[in-house]
Amino acid sequence: MAKKIKNNIDMDKLYSDPLTFRARVQEELRRAKRYATFVSMVSLDLSHIDAVSDIDNSRDYDDFMASFKKLLKNSIRESDLLSISMGRRVLILLMDTPHEGANALMERLTKTLRYFMADNIKSPLNWRIPMKEYCFPTSSKDDFSIQSFIDKIGE
């Protein structure tokens, strides 16, 4: 059990690096193309949260982010990957997950995070966390593609 926890901590460190996460996303995208499977990614934008004025006084920002990360990890499958880049952008890579599965996760997260944010963030204006979904294969050229998004990671 202790070894599994240590491995999870090591992987958390590994995927906090945007370039490492980008490489893993590209690997999963190639696999999805080769085997004609689905892959989706959900992006959560936390840039609107001010660490000084928004976080409840009883918590510091690191404690808030640790609780946020734990909540997200409990909301996704063990096979899904989570990357938090400098506390401003959260990416969740969903292997073998079609568009509908990513939408279901976003709906679940919207409800769950609303309660979490209400408990931890002072301003109701910041209780909503913007999310975007990226899928492969996409249904049209107007959809957000995973490839176009990951090309911007680490730039």
Question: Can you give keywords for this protein?
Answer:
Alpha-Beta Plaits, 5 helices, alpha+beta, 4-stranded antiparallel sheet
Summarize the structure.
With 155 residues, this protein is an alpha+beta fold. The protein has helices spanning 2-15, 18-35, 61-75, 99-120, 146-150; strands at residues 39-45, 81-85, 89-95, 131-136.
Radius of gyration: 16 Å
Q: Could you say what the CATH topology is called?
A: Alpha-Beta Plaits
- Structural class estimated from helices and strands: alpha+beta
CATH superfamily: Reverse transcriptase/Diguanylate cyclase domain
Q: Can you write the helix and strand succession as a string?
A: HHEHEEHEH
Description of the structure:
The longest helix has 22 residues. This protein is 48% helix and 16% strand. It is α+β, with helices and mostly antiparallel strands. The mean pLDDT is 79. β2 and β3 form a beta hairpin. α3 packs antiparallel against α4. It has a single domain, classed as Alpha-Beta Plaits, CATH 3.30.70.270. A four-stranded antiparallel beta sheet has the order 2-3-1-4, sandwiched between helices. The chain is built from five helices and four strands.
Helix/strand layout:
Layout: H1 2-15, H2 18-35, E1 39-45, H3 61-75, E2 81-85, E3 89-95, H4 99-120, E4 131-136, H5 146-150
Antiparallel strand pairs: 1-3, 1-4, 2-3
